[in-house]
Specification:
The chain is α/β, with parallel strands linked by helices. The strands form seven sheets. Strands 11-12-10-13-14-9-15 form a seven-stranded parallel beta sheet, sandwiched between helices.
């Protein structure tokens, strides 16, 4: 027997399967991880196929093949559907198969840094009466005590016995020698939420609206097919629909994956699903320890957990017999991976659901324009939930013109209406949320004499001032994390006139304390959630009423459900309105609508205060009215006029290189190659509305200079050869340059 093996080495020289002889008696199937010789070293690899000796070419006899050293697990680590998915990603991302296969496995498992954890266990030997045996231990009170503790016949952790009996191991060993106790080791899972006490919950009676939505999807779920867009306003009870769908899938003996866009949403979602489905629920995200991620992956792989909750990487969970994929808040750009290999978890979900005959549910109160357009033309079945649970009213929205606040002499980041409502809200024992999608204290630092702006050395963006509690200020890059002290004089002209501009969440927190000194506030952004379980701790504290105000970035803008929150303040509604991105208005509308939806989700009506310098903007007006249909119509027509997606495709070849000259040269060669192709293919040229070479909007990130060749194409079958040509160009990297092809990228940054 001969195995075709992809070695776990990402390099163009080994980007192909290698043939190895399977030793006699070794049982292998595709997807099994193995140890193989490569040159003079041993490396890990993955079996992609098996064949007989007769299938070998004549120039490669079996005797010349090196044998596989051994298998790393007793089971295939990568299931056949995930193997096919890895091949698909390798083609679309133009990367070696070894690189896309890494997505399917916990990193620590691949590198051998983590092993199965076992713990020492003790239980009574078969047929032993613990009470009688204890009475017989007249000379050893310790052994008698241990026997009484074990008298329930259940297995006990030795470390737990040690909490009740001092140094029990010698006594337990003596009892084992006497045939009274059995000592053994058992696998112990490192649970992400072992300290989380989740009471079991029973399904509520669904509202008529929830039942109607569910009834529209269940027939397709039963058949193992269907793609749905669930459009429900904030507070309409979409999560209960997910839970009911998962329940149906489990009844069918199948499994489910539920994706959430933010790790911050995971604890709350896990709590709901654990309460309903108990230990069948597993969680996967980047903030788990290596041990926790490995153990959760193994529970899923062994079929012990059939419901997986997680961020985008959870789409690769090794569930068997997949029946349902839910993508919650499907409009979020966090589903797009910006690291190689690049993938869109929503597209992967679509591919995996069709490949494994599972139902796909995309869900949002503010669906992306592309998704809603697809639903209108029939690519997805549209299911709508237009009202809140129990017909609770949508929050009332007050739009505050910050230009008038400034004209009236108010220089605070808090408008007077917001400050008044905050005071009233907290006095009544209710809670509030304040949203500002910018962390830090000041957003940039500039010289008043020459205009110099402090930028990151590795990235072409301004650095943000942070004020660590109890420490001195720091300038931080929000892309690469670089840190430097704030300047005391201008690095360019030596002027002492340094000024700090803009406000971040730290500044909001500080000013709130000054204006409402008796109000307790919590802040939730990347800075406050770096530690493990920080998201859960902050949300638990707020949910338990330990703070009256929660200040945060987009982490708090979606999915969270706190019954006591009756007021939401949007601090700077137009912050993202004029970014150099054709989706700037869409994202602004989504953020405002989503964060406004956190208010009034229980019996007390909610209020929202939207602070803006452009209250008349149609996007702001539609968000204030919580009117998605109006916004969609406006935005759809704007894109039709400007020929933006969904009427066209934006495609680019992105070049990244540590040397700017090489990046420019590579981009220039790619541009000329594209132009040459279009000149020689007039049919395809007609589909291309624009082709230009330019610096990327952010010229440098993490020390990599970035240039792109940007194309705008009509979405038409005739454009397919153009995409194939771009893919071929992207596959040819330079010595130090990497080239990526992106279709309708989430950001053109």
């Amino acid at each position: 027997m001969v195995a075709q093996v992809i070695v776990d080495v990402v390099h163009s020289n080994v980007a192909k399967p290698f043939s190895y002889a399977v030793p006699p008696g070794m049982k292998l199937v595709p997807g099994t991880r193995v140890r193989v010789p490569l040159g003079r070293r041993q490396v890990d690899g993955l079996v992609v196929s098996l064949m007989g000796e007769e299938d070998l070419p004549p120039e490669m006899p079996l005797a010349k093949l090196k044998p596989i050293t051994g298998s790393l697990e007793e089971y295939p680590a990568v299931l056949p559907p995930l193997m096919a998915l890895a091949e698909e990603i390798a083609q679309s991302a133009h990367c070696p198969l070894a690189e896309s296969l890494r997505l399917m496995l916990p990193a620590a498992m691949r590198t051998g840094r983590i092993q199965v954890k076992t713990e020492e266990m003790a239980r009574l030997a078969t047929g032993v009466d613990g009470v009688e045996a204890a009475q017989a231990q007249k000379r050893s009170p310790k052994r008698a005590t241990l026997l009484r503790l074990l008298a329930d016949g259940k297995p006990h952790l030795v470390r737990e016995l040690a909490e009740m009996v001092r140094e029990p191991r010698e006594a337990l060993k003596r009892l084992e020698d006497d045939g009274l106790v059995r000592l053994y080791r058992e696998e112990a899972y490192r649970s992400p939420y072992e300290d989380l006490q989740t009471p079991q919950s029973t399904p509520p009676v669904l509202t008529a609206q929830q039942q109607e939505a569910l009834s529209g999807m269940l027939p397709q779920v039963a058949k193992g097919r269907g793609s749905f867009l669930l459009h429900g306003v904030t507070g309409s009870g979409k999560t209960e629909v997910y839970l009911a769908l998962v329940h149906k899938v489990l009844e069918m003996g199948r499994s489910a994956i539920v994706l959430v866009p933010e790790i911050a949403l995971t604890p709350q979602m896990v709590n709901w699903f654990r309460g309903r489905f108990g230990p069948q629920t597993a969680v996967l995200h980047s903030r788990l320890t290596e041990g926790q991620r490995y153990d959760e992956w193994r529970r899923i792989r062994k079929g012990e957990a059939r419901v997986v909750i997680g961020a985008r990487s959870a789409i690769f969970a090794p569930v068997q017999d997949l029946g349902l994929i839910v993508v919650d808040e499907e409009h979020e750009q966090t589903y797009l991976s910006d690291r190689h290999p690049r993938y869109d978890a929503r597209q992967v979900a679509g591919s995996r659901s069709s490949r494994e005959r599972a139902t796909l549910v995309l869900s949002s109160a503010t669906p992306s324009i592309l998704s809603f357009a697809k639903a209108r033309r029939g690519d997805y079945t549209l299911v709508e939930m237009p009202s809140r649970v129990m017909d609770r009213p949508m929050p009332t929205v007050t739009v505050v013109d910050m230009r008038r606040e400034m004209a009236a002499g108010n220089r605070s980041i808090f408008s007077l209406p917001l400050l008044e409502k905050l005071g009233e809200c907290t006095r009544q024992g209710q809670q509030a949320m304040l949203f500002l999608n910018r962390r830090g204290y000041n957003t940039f630092v500039s010289c008043r004499s020459c205009g110099y702006v402090v930028k990151c050395d590795a990235c072409d963006i301004s650095m943000t001032l942070h004020q660590p509690e109890g420490g001195s200020g720091q300038m931080r890059c929000h892309l690469c994390g670089a840190v430097k002290p704030p300047p005391t004089q201008c690095p360019s002209c030596a002027s002492p006139y340094i000024r700090y501009f803009g406000s971040g969440t730290q500044r909001v927190e500080e000013e709130l304390k000054k204006l409402l000194p008796g109000v307790k506030a919590l802040r939730m952004d990347i800075d406050t959630t770096r530690e493990r379980d920080a998201h859960r701790k902050i949300l638990d504290a707020f949910g338990q009423g330990q703070a009256q105000v929660l200040i945060g970035t987009q982490m708090i803008a979606k999915g969270l459900d706190f019954p006591q929150v009756t007021l939401v303040g949007v601090m700077a509604a137009d912050m993202s309105l004029h970014l150099p991105d054709y989706r700037a208005q869409e994202r602004t509308f989504q953020l405002i609508t989503q964060v406004a939806g956190r208010a009034g989700r229980a019996n007390i009506p909610g209020e929202v205060v939207v602070q803006t310098y452009q209250p008349e903007h149609p996007c702001i007006q539609a968000a204030a009215a919580q009117d998605y249909r109006t916004f969609f119509t406006q935005e759809f027509e704007r894109r039709r006029t400007g020929l933006y997606p969904p009427f066209t495709m934006l495609t680019r070849l992105l070049v990244e290189c540590p040397r700017e000259e090489e990046a420019q040269e590579m981009a220039q060669r790619l541009y000329e190659a594209v132009q040459g192709y279009l000149l020689s293919h007039p049919v395809q040229k007609k589909r291309v509305l624009m082709c230009r070479l330019d610096e990327a909007p952010v010229k440098k990130i993490r020390g990599q200079y970035r240039y792109h060749v940007l194309l705008k194409l009509f979405e038409h079958p005739d454009a397919k050869p153009v995409l194939e040509m771009l893919a071929q160009l992207a596959a040819v990297d330079g010595e130090s340059c990497r080239v990526y092809v992106e279709v309708n990228p989430a950001t053109l940054m």
